[in-house]
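Below is how a single chain appears once it has passed through the pipeline. First comes the sequence as given, then the structure the pipeline wrote out for it. We keep one example in the README because the format questions we get most often are answered faster by looking than by reading.
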Amino acid sequence: MSIMLISTFLVLLVPVCLYLRASCRSKNPAVLPTNWPILHMFPSFMANLHNLYDYFTLVLARSGHNFRAHGPPGTGMRFFITCDPANARHIFTTNHANFPKGTEFADIFEIMGGSLFTIDGEPCRRQRAKAKSMLSSPRIVASMAAYLCGKVENNLLPLFTRMAITGTSFDMQELMSRLMFDLAATPLFSVDPGLLSLDMPPMDAAVALDTVMEVGFFRLMMPASCWKSMRWLNIGPERKLDTARMVLRELVQEMMEKRKITSCRFGHGKEQESVDIISSFLEDPDYANVDLLHAVIISYMLAARDTIATTLTWIFYNLAQNPNIVSIIRNELSPIASRKVAVGVCTPVIFEPDETKSLVYLTATLYETLRLYPPAPVLRKTVAVDDIMPSGHEVHAGDTIFISVHSMGRMEAVWGKDCLDYNPHRWLSDDGNNLRYIPSHKFLAFNSGPRMCLGKDIAIMQMKTVIATTVWNFDVNLVEGQSIQPKPSIILEMENGLIVKLKKREI
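Resulting structure:
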């Protein structure tokens, strides 16, 4: 598509989208997208871009969990949108080879090109095997647990204590982002970036990671010819992405230099190797290409920081509104805290990974948050060859499939009449002593099938330690009057953050 045709397309599109967007915000939006002349359903989705995940939920609830959509002629925008668990099982497990991420996805996230995030087939299997070997290493897991406890004790708790004493309101989302940035980078490079500290240094690299996810969302929703032309012209979101790319390259170079200094200072003994994930890539000839190495690092940082920081933010948002759930978590933590006090450990109490591992209700609370607020609310696949879904819908080669994880957690037919309620008890067995088994194709927060999240156990370990330590030592209260809504992004971050105040508990 030429620049002139793109300009004409945008001239036609923008007024329609502005009208629809104003209409949607002034009254209840139409449940099903309007099939406009020429532009077809594209304007309806653009008009709801500010709240697309909830819009998907409305559309899918009304259309029986599945919906077809298409954009203007010549754009190649043919979508099949689903939140049907049977379809999810077919896509992710039964016939997963027919539903790769595809070349368009790799183009959209070119900044991570060649990394596990964008590849399919044999390259994906090889890279997953390498990642699985590293993330299941007892020495690396032990090192990550030690980093976690040290960061909570030496940085997070002092910050929270100061906020509680002074009665200062702060953005919990920003603090969780700083925390997880440090916890992602430290085992990777054996260097602590120090974003979570009392002086709150600039977080340009963390903001750059956010930009990658925001521009990725924009690219997913736009015809490829449009965003590629914007990239060529270096305008709009593409200019922001170009700046973010430079910031992230500088971060990688800076951290690699600091790593060299640390290695020279402490030598190359086994202890050093056990906490330095990047060494495994540097010693592998498959990653000799600098661009590929940078892509792998950025992919790892996004996976290790964004998903966990986002989930922690939504957990504290939900717990602040459910004091009864907080009380149950504290009752579950009480025997552990009592043992710590008995051996002379004063408050604030830090709950270590081994101590929270078997806590059933705390895990149920975490899963309930992930059900309603999955950090990756929509997953994207491409159809390789024509297929028929379990729902009976035909999909054709080249179609794009969106699996709405966010919508699946809010479907009455999947989770019951109380599907919109925040209720951790739904995850418990009848006696409350164990977790119910929920298949991954129904609960897709950690993906499913051959692409199941390799860092699931580490992520749960980190989140449970942060939640337990915070909830035991502090009351978290929401500041009134704030607007809580997701930002347009691949990750379910809050548009305006989460402003809270803390009160230290008298235990």
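Confidence is low (pLDDT under 50) at residues 1-30, 266-274.

See the next section for the split statistics.
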